[in-house]
Specification:
homodimer; 426 residues; alpha/beta; FAD/NAD(P)-binding domain; four-stranded parallel sheet; 30% helix; 26% strand; globular; membrane (chains A, B); flavoprotein (chains A, B); NDH2-like_C (chains A, B); EC 1.6.5.9 (chains A, B); FAD (chains A, B)
Chain lengths: 426, 426
């Protein structure tokens, strides 16, 4: 019997890491939770921050505050520089080494440009709050540039928006952007008509929201078109530069291209030296431990898990379940029991499209339109962390619903003092 | 009689510029309102964004939205590069020249370091939303650094906060920071006790809030001390570097110094080529026109106006009154009447100190403490633009009041992807 309490290091305060931490509340361990941000982010609503419907603090909560009562947790705001898997230690970016008895890697995913990293400068993605504020700035400035532009062709390019990737994020962004152009900005400009804006959603595969059954996917497509989105499927974007993008034989002038197509696991997985899948995720054992390292676990978007021949999807409920499973596995190990295998329980799938438009697929239940949208809204408010956030988000949405306005339409400067530069893309 | 409608150019969408624009609603002019930000900012609550009590969009509203129904206004998101006063034209940063019949300069003030510009890097100021987010990041990261620091002296330096300048902004920041350290962060750290933080307010003059009568100023000082702020008066800071600051004979280690001491007029005033006061403000004619240029007016913090031997203070009500006055003056000129002289009506003065602490001075009425705080709160909610903002701010404050929490405690990254760098100040 050891007098020293086992040390559990958890990397990442997202759904995987936070749910694991909470599930170890009563365990006789000491936990160090490491994240490079000071907050847990409710990623499913990130597109709302990017499209100026919500403020950053509405969908984030400080990790320290969430975990203030859990006395076995210490939080470190840091980045992990290296993992010494064999020696059971990790090294932080300030050079500190932390030895662990158990490690959970849950550092999530980042966008991937499929080998076209040069596109990143012209087609920003959406994974963090900083990404969302950058994108908000980009979208709002595009209308400002169009208003100031005298040349009709250049003006049209500023009013041409493309979203690459027809998954949930792409669909949400396209639907909301169409609403902004057609409703929110009405009457606000003198030289342009914002509803002339062209919002195009591009999916290389045969249909949008391909994780849903075909009929729901087709309904989503119809709802998108009704909102004013041009949906293009079956053709991939083959080039992106600051003037526009190449789609098949056609080059389309567009000053705003948003990347919602590719996701790759956080590069941290590579430093483990274990087999990865094509997206850089760890091919974990059935108990979510890393091959060859029984004391190292993986959860969330960093884990590649197959179940019934299908991959477990990279969604919040899956990450939470994995987090809780890892906590159970560590419990078991502490009692010298073998860890059980992880089993993903699929409670259903839902995606929002825009104002009063969504699709829902729960077992045999299939909904679309207004009812699905209310369902989506209730679920998302319910799962937000913090009573205050729920209240503020509900208030903002009620306001947006009645007024067609978006409360956070504030351009914050990433260049010095919010200055506007004409010589580069917004 | 000319068929061409006179062109009024207004630079700055703050209290001066926006109130002038609105007051020209029914005038037979076309207005171009120029601002480098897309929003009107309610500056009196900026310290709340810096101290994580409110989000940026809570105290700002898009200028286009505010003015959407006023059809004689066109808004340009741009910076003014030069003014051709004699030739009645201004040049924007993209090279566009706009000719005007009347010009209103209301571009406000910026911080000034009294010839010590090297202090700017170590003692950020607070004038814009970007400043506020920068400061928020700085304040929140200081506690994170202290938590991760093993050396007691270095840790104390991270927990040492100085606010230079005992005017309203300095007092608000000091009071709120003391509340954060003593209440908000309780239980959230494992290696430090946030209430060990030292919050020092430094005023070179003999007393804080010197625009108030002496007895109220003394009461404010007592309230600050009760909240846990060390108040130092009568000694000036003579040096600031990344390790701390020099105050008289003493060098005090502090990793956070906030600059709330000096204000200078926007540099735009200089390009007019007219007499300026020491702070760079235009010494305007009684009707607020610039000396020698009857068609150029100045309002707000850019105007140096004397009344009854005292300067008109740089506060929001004065700027609004000047804005409205300039609109009247332009009305008068359009009808070939002489413009009247500007007369400032002082409705009173109020300043908040912290939780349930404020001072109010309205004519013979002097209040301090809880009652003054409620007065301050009601006034500030009332004067916010937009019903939505009022509702959200009230909700946030009610929440903060009951929970001692601050909803916007989210560190947003100004470096890439919110990464934390250990090798520099936050």
């Amino acid at each position: 019997m050891s007098a020293i309490v086992p040390h559990v290091v958890i990397v990442g305060g997202g759904f995987g890491g936070l749910w694991a931490t909470r599930a170890l509340d009563a365990a006789a361990v000491r936990i160090t939770l490491i994240d490079r941000c000071n907050h847990h982010l409710f990623q499913p609503l990130l597109y709302q921050v990017a499209t100026a419907g919500l403020s950053s603090p509405d969908i984030a909560a400080p990790l320290r505050h969430i975990l203030r009562k859990q006395r076995n947790v210490e939080i470190r705001l840091a980045e992990v520089a290296d993992i010494d898997a064999a020696g059971k230690g990790i090294v932080l970016d300030d050079g500190t080494r932390l030895d662990f008895d158990y490690l959970l890697l849950a550092s999530g995913a980042t966008h991937a440009y499929f080998g076209h990293d040069q596109w990143a400068a012209h087609a920003p993605g959406l994974k963090t709050l900083d990404d969302a504020l950058h994108l908000r700035r980009h979208l709002l400035l595009a209308f400002e540039r169009a208003e100031a532009e005298a040349d009709p062709a250049k003006r049209a390019a500023w009013l041409s928006f493309a979203i690459v990737g027809g998954g949930p994020t792409g669909v949400e962004l396209a639907g909301t952007l169409a609403e902004i152009a057609r409703h929110t900005l009405v009457n606000e400009f003198r030289n342009i008509n914002p509803s002339d804006a062209r919002v195009r959603l591009i999916e290389a595969g045969p249909r949008v929201l391909s994780s849903f059954p075909e009929d729901l996917s087709a309904k989503a497509c119809r709802q998108l078109r009704k909102l004013g989105v041009e949906v293009s499927t079956g053709k991939a974007v083959t080039d992106i530069n600051e003037c526009g993008y190449q789609l098949g034989d056609e080059f389309i002038a567009a000053r705003t291209v948003v990347w919602a197509a590719g996701v790759a696991a956080s590069p941290l997985a590579r430093s483990l030296g274990v087999p990865l899948d094509r997206a850089g995720r760890v091919l974990v054992n059935p108990d979510l431990s890393a091959p060859g390292y029984p004391n190292i676990f993986i959860a969330g978007d960093l884990a590649s898990v197959q179940q019934d021949g299908k991959p477990v999807p990279g969604v919040a409920p899956a990450a939470k379940q994995m987090g809780r499973h890892v906590a159970n596995a560590i419990h078991a190990r502490l009692q010298d029991r073998p860890a059980p295998a992880f089993a993903y329980k699929d409670y259903g799938n839902l995606a929002t499209i825009g104002r009063m438009a969504a699709i829902v697929h729960f077992g045999r239940l299939k909904l679309s339109g207004v009812l699905a949208w209310w369902f989506w809204l209730a679920a998302h408010v319910f799962f937000l962390i913090g009573f205050r956030n729920r209240l503020i988000v509900l208030l903002n949405w009620t306001w947006a619903y009645w007024s067609y306005q978006r409360g956070a339409r504030i351009i914050l400067g990433s260049d010095e003092a919010g200055q506007v530069r004409q010589d580069r893309q917004p």
